[in-house]
TrEMBL record:
Membrane-spanning ranges: 44-68, 80-100
Keywords noted in UniProt: Membrane, Transmembrane, Transmembrane helix
Cleaved signal peptide residues: none
InterPro entries in the record: DUF4112
PANTHER family referenced in this protein's UniProt entry, alphabetically: MEMBRANE PROTEINS, PH DOMAIN PROTEIN
Species lineage: Bacteria, Pseudomonadati, Bacteroidota, Cytophagia, Cytophagales
Keyword Glycosyltransferase: no
Protein name: DUF4112 domain-containing protein
Length: 131
């Protein structure tokens, strides 16, 4: 009998699919032709001093609220909040923060953390008590 390896597609629960789409818009929607380099609206919005970084933070915070309402472990929540906080604080530095924002892609990192969490079967704990 031939051994078949099944590729597990990492997906978010249906209620959280909008988070994946939003993070794509914020971090990966544009591609520079002839390269693999991608960036999104987050660093572009971040070019507006203080206000732009706050808008990006507010969008990320709305994603966190949805994640918490759906239920996620406290350790995952702390990782996600750490990514968002780092992204916001770095973004406060004009231009340097925007370049780092292009490279760091906190929203994409957070989606990857969530996908790993939900596909690993660890979705037993909940942080709903936080909100």
């Amino acid at each position: 009998m031939k051994k078949q390896t099944e590729l597990i597609k990492k997906e978010l629960p249906k209620e959280l699919e909008w988070i994946d789409k939003t993070s794509t818009v914020l971090d990966d929607i544009f591609k520079i032709p002839a390269t693999n380099f991608r960036f999104g609206l987050d660093p572009v919005i971040g070019l507006l001093p203080i206000f732009g970084d706050f808008v990006g933070f507010a969008i990320s915070a709305s994603m966190v609220l949805a994640i918490v309402r759906h239920g996620v472990s406290l350790s995952v929540l702390i990782k996600i909040l750490g990514n968002i906080t780092f992204d916001y604080l770095v973004g406060l530095f004009p231009f340097l923060g925007d370049f780092l924002d292009v490279a760091y892609k906190s929203n994409r990192r957070n989606v990857d953390i969530l996908k790993d969490y939900y596909t690993s079967g660890k979705h037993t704990e909940s942080s709903k008590y936080v909100v």
